[in-house]
Amino acid sequence: MFGSSMLSKKIGIDLGTANVLVYVAGEGIVLNEPTVVAVRADDNKVVAVGQEAKEMLGRTPGNIIATRPLKDGVIADYGITQSMLSYFIDKVSGPTRFLSGSFLRTKPEVMVCIPSGITQVEKRAVLDATLAAGAGSVYLIEEPLAAAIGAKLPIAQATGHMILDSGGGTTDIAVISLGGVVEHKSIRIAGNKTEEAIANHIRKRFNLLVGERTAEEIKIKIGNAIPDASDPQIMGVRGRDSVTGLPRSIDISDEEVNEAILPVLKQIINAIRETFEITPPELASDIIDKGIVLSGGTSLLKNLDKYISRETGVPSYVAEDPLFCVVRGTGVALENLELYKRSINKNEY
User: Fold this and answer.
1) Which CATH architecture has domain 191-260?
2) How far apart are CA 223 and CA 106, in angstroms?
3) What's the pLDDT tens digit per position in 251-263?
4) What is the pLDDT of residue 7?
5) How do the domains of the chain map onto residue ranges?
């Protein structure tokens, strides 16, 4: 199975739509790179992965394609995802070891987090891609459970906790008690949809075409769930005029960005309400006392916690280091398999 179990590394992977984060047992978080791969169009050979590939988005020559192999939290391109995982696993596994007069690369134990609402087929794709990428054994853990562990919530207690983990492709909402997920709701609406909404708004309102990276920059700089009318934020945006085809610049305000992303935020609120509707009353009471914990990159949207509190009437707060909750929780679960084995799947599909 492994050349030597003592030499095999334990690796936790947050395989996100927007970013891949990797945790190595005993070392902590060792890698954080965009989920982007650049391949040659003629033979599908990988030419760049991660940050280097992201820099190529929208800027590649015709023979190179920069792509995101995951869409809405699940694998959209199996081959490219496998190549990307191989690259990251090799990068953190270290050099080949010399043992008993021959070279031996031990296969690591890998735990990958998955959205709570994906199908068995989608789980199988993650499992197979990770094994093909060089893992010796693979465990799957649901993202909201990993996020709750990473946020240091006391999930082993007989009380209810609600975690909302919103990344690039999916928003997972889960009620957790006694170390497991009691109820959950997963929607394929998150950060990427807010960026699409911003780009569409600018195209319709200003006849200006902007790329994915520009829309993300707008969201980060002036995106606001509850903009302050007394202190408007303005940002200059450059793009291509959809009528003349020439470059042009405009100014956009945080109010307009809010107008663009509000329909996306409302869908997240609806998912929270639907989760409460199926939550046992005793656990719902606990959540009202303890509040909703937010994790993932989308939770960094300014005033999102206040917006959720206002719309649901339930206190909400952003976890410490929300970007790293899932990968940290994945690593902790991998280091303590016996504690979490009830909620973890091991290559069994």
Assistant:
1) Alpha-Beta Complex (3.90)
2) 45
3) 999 999 999 999 9
4) 57
5) 10-145+326-346, 154-190+263-322, 191-260
